[in-house]
Input
Amino acid sequence: MDETVRPLRIPPQIPVYADKHNVFHLLQNMLFSLVIDQPEDPICYLIRLLQRSSLDIPRVVLLGPPAAGKHTVVKKLSAELRAVHVTTDSLLQDQSERTHPHTEQELPAELLVALLQRRLKEIDCFSRGWVLEGIPQTRLQALSLQQAGIIPEHVVMLEAPDDVLLERTRGKLVDPLTRDVYHQTFIWPVDDTVAQRLEKERDLSEMQRLADLQRYRCEVTGLISAYQHVLKVVNCDQPHTDVYQQVLAFVRTRCYSRTPRILLLGPPGSGKSHQARLLSKKYKTVDVSCGQLLRSVAADGSALGQEIQLYLDDERPVPDSLVLQVLEERLSQVDCSYRGWILHGFPRELQQAKSLQESQHQPNRVFILELTDDVCLERLTLRSTDPVSGERFHAMTRPAPCTEVQNRLRTRPEDSVHTVTHQLNQYRTYAAALQTVYPDAVHINADQDPHTVFEALESRLTAD
Output
C-alpha cells in the first residue's frame, strides 16, 4: 500500500466561489448554532436555520454605567435592526419571577442564564436576533452566559466620566407610556405632547447613585476581558446622535472567514513591499512580489525563464502574456490556494488589471497606498546601500553611522531622480484607470509610521 501523503490540491476557483457566496461564514454559523443548541433532530434544525431570512441575525450586548444612555441607544438600535430588545426587567416580567424590586441589582448567574436561555430560544429571538441591554452586569454572569452558549457577535460599552454620569442621573425623566428616557439638559423630546407627560425618575440619594456607579466600576475590567475580542468602547459624553451612529456602524460590521487574496497598489516608495512582508509574517500568507517572481523564474534555467531573462537583460518590460503565465502558475500552487497571497508590483495599468480580473485569481481585498510625489522622491532618491555590509541607509531617516561608511555608500540606478520621476509619472498616468477596475479599493494614507499603516490595513482585512 502506498502510504505517501500527498498534499491536498485546492483548485483556485474554490476559494473564489466560497468568498463570493460567504460559504465559510455560512458553515461556521451553522456549526456554531448546531453545537450550542444541540437539537434532537439536527437535520430539521438546520433546515429551519437556513429558512430564516438571514443567517446574520444580530447578537448584540450593550453595556455601560448608570445614566450612560443604554436604554435610549438599545431601543433605537433594536428598531433599526428589527431585533428583540431584552432587558433584565423584561425577563423577570415575562417569567413572572420578579423577585428583585430594584433591577439594577445583580441577578444570580444561574437565574440569569436560565431566563435568557428560555427567552432567546423563542421564535422572535431565533428569527430576528436580539440586543441585550445592560446584560451581563458582572464577569461571572458573562462567563456563565458564554458557558451556556449565549455568545454575542458585538459588544458595545458606553463610557463617560463619573461627574457627567452623576449629572445625568439628577435630571433624568421618563415617559410613562413608552418608558423612553429623557433629560432636562441632554435629551429633550421633540414632541410637546411627550414632553408634557414626562415624569421624574424615582429619586435616588447621592449615596445610592455613587454606590451604583462604584458597583459598575468594580466589574468593568472583568467585563472588558470577557468580551475583548468583540468589544468596542464608545464615549457617550457627546451628542446622542453621534453615539448612536458609532454604535450602529460597529454593529453592522461582519467578520468573515476567507482565504486572503490581497492586492497592494500605490506609487513607488509607498511601502507596498514592506507592508506585504508585515502582513505575510503575521497571517502566514504568501508574499508575491511580481518583480522578484520574474527574476526568480528567469534564474531557474527553464525555457520560460530564459525568455524572460532576455527582456530583463535589455531592461525592457516583460510582456503581459509572460507575466500572467508566471503569476497563474505561482498563485495556483498549494501554499497560495491554502494560505492566501499578497500581490504587489502588478497590475501597473488598466489592461493588466482587467486580465487579472478575468483570471481565476481575483483579489478579495484591494488596498491603495496613497503618497505624494514629493514624499516618494524623498524616500527613494535619498536611500543608498553599503556594498560591504549590504545594509541600506537613508540620508534623513537612517543616516550612515560614520564617515567611513558614508563615503562608500552607493545609490542604485533605479533610485536616481530621473528613474523615480519616470516611474511616478507612469503610475499617475494609469492610477485613475486602475481605480475603475477596483472601485471598492480601500485608500490608506501611507505618509505615516509603517506600523500605523499596517494597523490601518489590518483593521480592514476581515470586515465585510
